[in-house]
Design goal:
mainly beta; 5-stranded antiparallel beta sheet
Length: 121
């Protein structure tokens, strides 16, 4: 079974925190559609985070055993393609890239990848 966890950048100091996602003003399905979000860490600390920075753990790890989150930027190890964004699209996580104005989707986990950053840093 996949672990459900989130990360977000704190409003106070922009540090990343990891844990359970909490909505305080709205009960919305996606963090990006609310004005306020909090993450509670495994130690019980609660942090207000920028809603647009919230990303869900995909359940997949990269070649360095690093967790991959929605919003990460990854690159295929074997093919050294252009960097891909990790996005949640219609019930699944995908690597997305654009070429000549067209969006291309590849299922996350279809090849070995390496996290090289995220869309928020």
């Amino acid at each position: 079974m996949r672990t459900i966890k989130f990360r977000g950048s704190t409003v106070q100091d922009s540090n990343w925190v990891y844990g359970c996602l909490v909505y305080s003003e709205y009960d919305a399905p996606f963090a990006k559609s609310v004005d306020y979000a909090e993450i509670i860490t495994p130690s019980g600390e609660c942090f207000e985070v920028f809603p647009g920075s919230v990303g869900q753990f995909t359940g997949v790890k990269d070649v360095n055993d690093q967790d991959i989150y929605e919003g990460d930027i990854v690159i295929p190890v074997k093919f050294k393609d252009k960097p891909n964004d990790v996005e949640y699209i219609s019930h699944g996580f995908y690597r997305t890239t654009y070429h000549k104005g067209k969006q291309y989707l590849n299922p996350l986990g279809s090849c070995q990848i390496k996290v090289i950053g995220n869309a928020y840093d």
